[in-house]
Amino acid sequence: MNEASESEKGLKRSLSATNLVALGIGAIIGAGLFSLTGLAAANNAGPAVTISFLVGAIGCAFAGLCYAEFASMIPIAGSAYTYSYATMGEFMAWIIGWDLVLEYALGAATVAISWSQYLVKFLHHFNIHLPAQLTASPFETVTLVDGTTVHGYMNFPAILIVGALSMLLIRGTRESAFTNALLVALKVTVVLVFIAVGWNHVDPANYTPYVPENEGFGHFGISGVLRGAAVVFFAFIGFDAVSTAAQEAKRPQKDMPIGILGSLVICTILYVLFAHVMTGLANYKEFKDSAAPVAIAIAKTPYGWLQQAIILAILAGYTSVILVMLMGQSRVFYSMSKDGLLPKAFSDVHPKYRTPYKSNLLFMVFVSLFSAFVPVHVVGEMVSIGTLFAFVLVCIGIIIMRKKQPDAPRPFKTPLVPFVPIMGIIICVVMMGALPWDTWLRLAIWMGLGFVIYFTYSKKNSKIGQSEK
């Protein structure tokens, strides 16, 4: 914290509580709202998907309360990495820092690929057709209008969006936050318009039965509502990215809890209202196997023009998600570099813009390569398991800190400790257990690579390693 207070050398404190809430909303409202809602309704919960969203929000709230305490205690860039370093030591901090690459860098790559696909759809409406080979990875095939299939070369639009947002981040946090605020305003406006317009065309018959009769575990009934909560849980991922900006907050002790919990509350309200209107416009069975359930719902209203507006909102949503993910990743590596676990280049601050520009440039290349040449399904589930693992370690860290340093100043205190962190751990572990085994295998391979780097470089060159020498 003394290091972070050297304001002339460190990152610039330019973010208000409003900026932080906008960052959180920017990271949370993305693909989940526009696609997972329909899938969870059709396959698991029916119209009671609104209850699923509330259950998922409660699960996130347990982790969010733990994040808020840490963010107020240790207002340093790095999120879960920094908290693990302070509570569980260097080795556990390395594990979580390396794991966060899965959440932020691969998360940005996943969203960039989807952003490219929606851009193609949006441009088709205006008779602008990008070459199919330049919108898919070499491992994917694209079906052309005449029915023929071609192999992709690279996903060029994904490269463009990652490069443009990386340059914006290098330019400055204030400018990035302003751009993010505009994007958030756009997508929230479209969500609110959908709710307002759709509310008047809701058919009450679509809510009967509200909780469809159980057809087997996880398919409707109470178990279906809970399975639906597991599905839509990933629509909430992103609020933790707020904590990576702690070192750039003007009043971190007060503003960080507002940013984390405020964005979570706002998004939960929007999610519940959105799901309620969507399942009221169309019967939940109509959403089965649909990648664009919102389009089905809009078709039940006389406002067809909303379809293009929704795609525009999705593009804005994805853009802000990529922006926040790239920002979060560079701040995690900034903190790891400051601790000596990574080369010093990652914590070099731009002399004019005071941003970790070398870290931004590295991830511009890394994320661009992934988004250009790797299929989306390979990276998507790795993002989920990396995020949940981070949540678990933060919850464990709260329990440890209450034991090790019970009298440390806590501007925000997580209530009902140890109940809240224990519930956070249980819910996240259950979610991890629901992921496919090959995702666990990829996690094991990724962590194995991390151990090699730690024991060959980081352990010897870290501040702790140097002091032991």
Automatic annotation (TrEMBL):
GO terms for cellular component: membrane. Keywords: Membrane, Transmembrane, Transmembrane helix, Transport. InterPro entries: AA/rel_permease1. The keyword Membrane applies. Pfam families: AA_permease_2. One of its GO terms (molecular function) is amino acid transmembrane transporter activity. It comes from the Bacteria. It is found in: Membrane. The chain crosses the membrane at residues 20-42, 48-70, 91-115, 152-170, 177-197, 217-237, 258-278, 309-328, 361-379, 385-402, 414-434, 440-457. It is a multi-pass membrane protein. This is Amino acid/polyamine/organocation transporter, APC superfamily. It comes from Chitinophaga eiseniae.
